[in-house]
Amino acid sequence: MLWFTLGLALLLRRYDDDPPWRTTFLAGAGVVSVVSGQIASWDAAAYRSEDLDPQVARYAFDLGNLSFANGWVSSGAVGICAGLLLLTARELPSWLGWWAMIAGVGSVLGRAFWSHGFAFAPFTLFWLWVGVVSVLLLVGRLADRPRLV
User: Fold this and answer.
1) Separation between Cα atoms, residue 142 and residue 129, nearest integer Å
2) What is the pLDDT of residues 99-117, one digit of tens each?
3) Residue 146 belongs to a domain
4) Considering its fold, how many domains does the chain have in total?
5) Which value, in Å, is the radius of gyration of the alpha carbons in the chain?
């Protein structure tokens, strides 16, 4: 996620305003997304589980769930910022921008309903978008091609 968001921010920089607030926020949201994933303490709930007090294990598990759900907000910010950039760039596909916006806004709103099953839908949609963008970048559909002069 970190390399994806930083690379995407650098690639989309040419479509941003001056100062580049959307790509800066995109890169920052990617960093926060990774950091919030590192805070998740599900491993602490399972590590030495036979020696761990059940209350401490329950706390670690709950903290992991909350950290995971809080990561949706930063992932949603990645989608929103990238979507805004994709929608304003005439050279890039607008459908990819709308997909990012819907997944991003849905992920942010899904955080309010994180304990319900339907809250995973926009987050899943976001990760599908990440996969599609990654494939498009790998095959050269979103990268600028060198111009022969």
Assistant:
1) 14
2) 999 999 999 998 888 777 7
3) no
4) 1
5) 18
